Amino acid sequence: MLSQKTIDIVKSTAPILETHGVDITTYFYKTMFEAHPELLNIFNHANQSQGRQQTALANTVYAAAQYIDQLEVLLPTVKQIAQKHRSLTVKPEHYPIVGEYLLKAIKGVLGDAATDEIIGAWGEAYGVIAQVFIDIEKEMYAEAAEKSGGWEDFKEFIVEKKVTESSLITSFYLKAKDGVSVPWYLPGQYITVRLSIPGQKHLLNRQYSLSQAPGSDSFRISVKREADHNPQGKVSNYLHDRLNVGDTIEASAPAGDFYLEKGEQPVALISGGVGITPMMAMLGSIAENEPNRKTVFVHAARNKDAHAFGEEAGALVEKLNDGKMYIAYEAKKDESEVCDITGYVSRDFLQQVIESNSVCYVCGPISFMRAVVSHLTALGFSKNNIKYEFFGPALALEA
Ligand code: HEM
């Protein structure tokens, strides 16, 4: 239990953290990786170089400081982060390391303004926050192990099939090397894949949504090729160019809190680009388990060449008793490209095709999600009925 004095100090210094948050977390990562380079086998280096991870951590630390005496308010955020931690095999013994370098970073950036009393209070508060994560992650490890017959960390998979889905997206079907069937997962969840790339000192981890409904004996991930200079593309492009049928790759058990909830409520699946991947799992699951559920599937692609899963999604929608599919191409190459919308998915269009009592799932590039979420909000959809997933560290959409 934190004393009132500690709570007061942490809350009153939280605004300083808001101002210097990204400086502190940037300093934190730099010094922590210098002292513990082994942690570079867990963290995504591209997120570091783009500053997204620093921002995500700074926002969370700031929020935790503000709500230090009512951390239950943050539970949904903590659970989302904990899912990612679990899929990356973050363990209790890592927390003191992060705590040590976070406090050193606060001191390093704030200098004399960070008195011993302030640092002491933050140290205590970190201990409480870390324990919340550790406890939740412990439950998640146990649950994952139970669902998958004891599989807690990474295990090896063989590429069974590699299928080109569009000019940019390729699917990989992964079968467990130990012959055990893949566990049941929630449609929309992701797996973390881990691999060692020649010339790279550390292991590389990336999350990919599972792109087919659960129930098959292999995982399917569908990966977008990125521009060569994009650091986020290092793993994806390696998979495209170098990972072939018969090769081995490591993966951890499915995770994530963006998933289709079963129910009577009409559902809208709205995706842009490679954001279609979790939607394919959701659509497949509706077709299999809830074919009477009213469903609208809206997908935006750059053009026909970049449009993945057109036939597969169409066949799944055909299985529904009340399903509709709409395709938007940002710019058609020529008139032979047939789609429902040319240009962006507009507010008016969403209003026309989505029933106002629907639950909407949104996934795609940040600009796409920002536009769609703002349209849905303006159309009166409540926060509870707009669910979205970021690829990469979660950021505030309003930012
Ligand atoms: C991701 C917060 C402890 C490793 C994240 C994210 C946040 C966060 C906000 C971004 C989540 C997202 O992707 O949306 C925290 C907080 C911690 C903590 C508040 C302490 C209380 C740790 C520890 C480790 C760790 C102890 C292990 C050394 C990671 C990794 C990611 C991550 C590897 C994935 C992001 C990437 O690789 O770029 N954490 N974390 N975290 N965290 Fe933590």
TrEMBL record:
SUPFAM superfamilies, alphabetized: Ferredoxin reductase-like, C-terminal NADP-linked domain, Globin-like, Riboflavin synthase domain-like
One of the GO BP terms on file: cellular response to nitrosative stress
Domain of life: Bacteria
Name recorded for this polypeptide: Flavohemoprotein
Keyword RNA-binding: no
Record-linked InterPro entries: Cbr1-like_FAD-bd_dom, FAD-bd_FR_type, Flavoprot_Pyr_Nucl_cyt_Rdtase, FNR_nucleotide-bd, Globin, Globin-like_sf, Globin/Proto, Hmp
Gene: hmp
Residues in FAD-binding FR-type domain copies: 152-261
Spans annotated as Reductase: 149-399
Pfam families given in the database record: FAD_binding_6 (PF00970), Globin (PF00042), NAD_binding_1 (PF00175)
Function of the protein: Is involved in NO detoxification in an aerobic process, termed nitric oxide dioxygenase (NOD) reaction that utilizes O(2) and NAD(P)H to convert NO to nitrate, which protects the bacterium from various noxious nitrogen compounds. Therefore, plays a central role in the inducible response to nitrosative stress.
Binding-site positions, FAD: 190, 206-209, 390-393
Globin domain: residues covered: 1-138
Keyword terms, alphabetized: Detoxification, Dioxygenase, FAD, Flavoprotein, Heme, Iron, Metal-binding, NAD, NADP, Oxidoreductase, Oxygen transport, Transport
Residues given in the record as NADP(+) binding sites: 273-278
Binding sites annotated in the UniProt record for heme b: 85
Catalytic site: 95, 137
